[in-house]
Amino acid sequence: MAEKELTEAEKKKLDRKIEQLEKRISKIHQEYDTLTEELEEVLLERHPERREERIKETLYHAYQKSSRSMEEILVFMESDEGDFDWLENGF
């Protein structure tokens, strides 16, 4: 079954509709991100005991993604703020 060829007017109408939907999706996605962050903050305020666990999870995931060894990461974390000599020493 052959598909009907769209007229230029129909194509423009569909293009406008696509653009409108993409804008709405983008706006809703931004709102979702904002609400998710706010929820996370309120949950941590409500359950402060979860903060330490979240920190552990965040550090562990960063370590998994890193090409650094645990020793290199600990050296960095224990160094003075702004002291990046460890980078020049082959780490």
Would you give an account of this structure?
The protein is an all-alpha fold and about 90 residues long. The protein has one domain (about 15-90). It has helices at about 10-45, 50-65, 70-80, 85-90. The radius of gyration is 25 Å and the shape is elongated. The mean pLDDT is about 85.
- Class by SSE composition: mainly alpha
Strand content: under 5%
**Which blocks of ≥5 consecutive residues have pLDDT under 50?**
none
Distance between the termini: 64 Å
Percent helix: over 70%
Q: Please give the radius of gyration in angstroms.
A: 25 Å
Provide the domain count: 1
Shape: elongated
- What is the H-and-E element order? HHHH
Instruction: Please provide the count of β strands.
Output: 0
Number of helices: 4
Q: Main β-sheet, in a few words?
A: none
Averaged pLDDT = 87
Give a brief outline of the structure.
The chain is mainly alpha-helical.
How is this fold's topology laid out?
Blueprint: H1 8-46, H2 49-65, H3 70-78, H4 85-88
Salient structural properties:
mainly alpha, single chain, 4 helices
